[in-house]
Amino acid sequence: MRSVTIGILGLGQVGAGTLRLLQERRAAIEARLGAALTVRRIAVRDPGRAREVEVAADLLTTDPRAVIADPSIDVIVELIGGIEPARALILAALRAGKHVVTANKAVLAECGAEIFAEAAARGRMVYFEGSVAGGIPILRSLREGLASDRIEAIAGIVNGTSNYILDAMTRSGASFADALRAAQDAGFAEADPTLDVGGGDAAHKLALLALVAFGARVDPHAIPTEGITGISALDIRAAGELGYLIKSLALAHDTPEGPCLRVHPTLVPRAHVLAGVAGAYNAVQVESRALGRSLYYGRGAGMMPTAVAVVSDLLEVARDLIAGVAPTTPPAVRAVAPASTAALEHEHYLCVHVPNLPGVLGRVATCLGRHGVSIARMIQDRAGAGPVPMIILTEVVAERAMQAALTELSTSPDLAAPPTRIRLLPAALL
Amino acid sequence: MRSVTIGILGLGQVGAGTLRLLQERRAAIEARLGAALTVRRIAVRDPGRAREVEVAADLLTTDPRAVIADPSIDVIVELIGGIEPARALILAALRAGKHVVTANKAVLAECGAEIFAEAAARGRMVYFEGSVAGGIPILRSLREGLASDRIEAIAGIVNGTSNYILDAMTRSGASFADALRAAQDAGFAEADPTLDVGGGDAAHKLALLALVAFGARVDPHAIPTEGITGISALDIRAAGELGYLIKSLALAHDTPEGPCLRVHPTLVPRAHVLAGVAGAYNAVQVESRALGRSLYYGRGAGMMPTAVAVVSDLLEVARDLIAGVAPTTPPAVRAVAPASTAALEHEHYLCVHVPNLPGVLGRVATCLGRHGVSIARMIQDRAGAGPVPMIILTEVVAERAMQAALTELSTSPDLAAPPTRIRLLPAALL
Questions:
Q1: pTM score, whole prediction
Q2: Is the peptide bond before A85 cis (omega within 30 degrees of 0)?
Q3: Fewer CB atoms inside 10 A, N or C side of chain B?
Q4: pLDDT per residue over A154-177, tens digit each?
Q5: Are B236 and B349 in contact (CB under 8 A)?
Q6: How far apart are CA B203 and CA B219, in angstroms?
Q7: Which residues of B touch A324 (CB under 8 A)?
């Protein structure tokens, strides 16, 4: 039987899962492919370490360059993560004529220009299904299932850690800090959670979604990104009373000026399909011209879910290699500055802490009104002597106007703390 | 530019949508494929009819056999629907050496043995993404995204008409008959709705899901199938009070004796992701060994959604034709009798109408207890002089025992009408 040969760089969780899947599903894979997927070499940091998968000692090396240089290997699977040395090794693999499969969103989002240009120049493939939403076949669905459709908008819960924390806050009433600590104890948040709860990881994934959906490469640092660190137990409770859940969403829609991208906490109506995405699950809602709304849901991270995505890419590369087909063109490397968010329109949730005194509500409302922000609904809990929270839902207003109102409000002597503002899910995604 | 040539049989809603998508997305398709998808001929019943798409008169013919016989055509798209003449035309197309794309679940579920055998014998492809859940790329996700995974169970809302009616009953409190009439008026139900509300259409789709997920061909008539015609406004309301929505589900799980398949109304907890699937939407929940739970959601029918699926299949066939790749083996034609449902275990919802008299509850409970059916919860509305509804939630009990209990209950002189029983979503799918 023909064999497609694989070198793996990195044998952490996802590497071990990939190896296990290739072992356990060997017969099924060979029946489907008409060929074997054979792992030739695996680069690891510590060959002596205990692993969650059986691996022959003679497959292991500490030298990733030796794996890349091995002329008997067809495909390099990069599962080291992070920027370096992943970037240098992926480029070296492409230069050595290997196809590359990776689950590394950071390196592709940050260094995609270089990597996809190298792949195109060498006529090699770079597949990365595992880099967005773990095992959910979202990139394949966009690329093939919706191939003939025009993607108009995307709303994704793509960071499992943030969703897990917000979900825990919703269920238990805990503060962000307590929920984060519990998530860390349960293994759902890293010791340094910045990239997850700050929104950076979601911005990386959003950049890759935009690459596949719109054929546009966007610098992830140019994506307006707000994390969930400012969400309080009060915000969660007040949103709940108003009929909403707070979700961290990665949002994109196509505009004549290029894709408009942003990551921020969002109030989602309780009956909306995204509101049902609990715990560490991920989901990507897609709005496309012909199909309308579709949604893809599943485990966004973890050893075996991500391994399923990696092996699905391996099967695709292998099929093309066996058929002798020219590689699929890598996604467009056309660099695009993301469209401005200044004209975006949302309803907003606002929480301001103000003293329980006559005239304060009027001054807050007047300030908002001056910027064209109309109040749709207000809740104020009159109890308490010190500053009390005032919850406001606004009518639809442009981002630009809201920003101006928030800036002025922040300078008001009435406010004990800067206002919290959370956007509602835009009408087009309801 | 190379051209892959297409003949279309049938220019109803989906045919017109397919043609429109091929026209409107022509540039995008050509850029992606590196080739053109060119429609050569279209067989219609009435060439003079007004259509929702522009079509050159000289493409039209009333003779489908002429389209099939055209040696310049690579792929036949069958969009006539139903069994005959679709079956005969698909077989003729395969015998003429054409690849076939179809959205016809009925003909594939009923005549799949013959069709896939013919395709295998001729080395031709039969693609049918549009036949299950419209534009949702569920078959492609099972076949490719989850290619290396082992599918363990499937729960699908795959009949949009039934879901629309149940959803309308839930929102408005209407009876089944009134909700059906409203659905017919709104164009969401056929004049003869039997195949939809009786569950037959869902059984067809379930047979095709089992084909792709388990590689097993099952006679759709061997699938235990219950429609939604027996669901009353009272059932919907009582389920709601207990925290559930009633959904019509197509269910499958793998067993050592082959796949166990069934279609029936099901109580789904309100917070479950399937409960959020409203209106005419479809969703398929998949449980697989490595990925765990995933879900695919979108429009299950309609002109443009189904056209997206048809064109995704066309693109896949075209890619292989251009590459000169041998066709993908059609799904296994291994015929399997579905595993018995007798040992399946569920909690159940029961509704019996009994006279409001002393001793009746005791007799009903005793009858259930005799068959090992324990009552977990009971609601009885004491108002009313005639028979009053008694709602019972049971503990988990095997189908076999429940059937025996229902048979005995039905003969009880206490009951004014046969009991209604609705299964709860099994624990593995919660």
A1: 0.94
A2: yes
A3: N
A4: 999 999 999 999 999 999 999 999
A5: no
A6: 9
A7: 323
